[in-house]
Design brief:
By secondary structure, the protein is mostly helical. It has one domain. Keywords: Coiled coil.
Length: 118
């Protein structure tokens, strides 16, 4: 509304000045055109800035999702290492139990042999 009033005042002043000097009217019209073009350019720049800001926000969200996936993968990798260690430990325990079982079987055979000899 304020812009319209200012524009109307400029037109009135232009009309009065145009009667006195026709060259001024052309200069004012050129300046008004330049102002309109500048406003349009400013609006376009504002829209582009808004679009770029939205794009940056979308990329930030994607980066956050990817960072979360990396954290999850690191946790899985750590858990995998723990499980591998557990499997190795259980394999070692199994081998120890088998060795102990072999030893006990040998002792048992020797005792049975001793009993048969008696």
């Amino acid at each position: 509304a304020e812009l319209m009033r200012t524009n109307a005042k400029l037109r009135d002043t232009l009309a009065r000045a145009g009667d006195k000097s026709p060259g001024i009217a052309q200069q004012v019209a050129a300046l008004q055109s330049a102002v309109r073009t500048a406003r349009q350019d400013g609006d376009k720049a504002g829209e582009e800035a808004k679009a770029q800001a939205n794009l940056v926000r979308a990329k930030d969200r994607e980066l956050e999702r990817q960072a979360k996936k990396v954290e999850e993968a690191a946790a899985v990798l750590a858990r995998n290492g723990e499980l591998e260690n557990m499997v190795k430990d259980l394999a070692r325990q199994l081998e120890e139990a088998r060795a102990e079982n072999r030893t006990l079987n040998m002792v048992n055979r020797q005792r049975e042999g001793d009993i048969l000899r008696m």
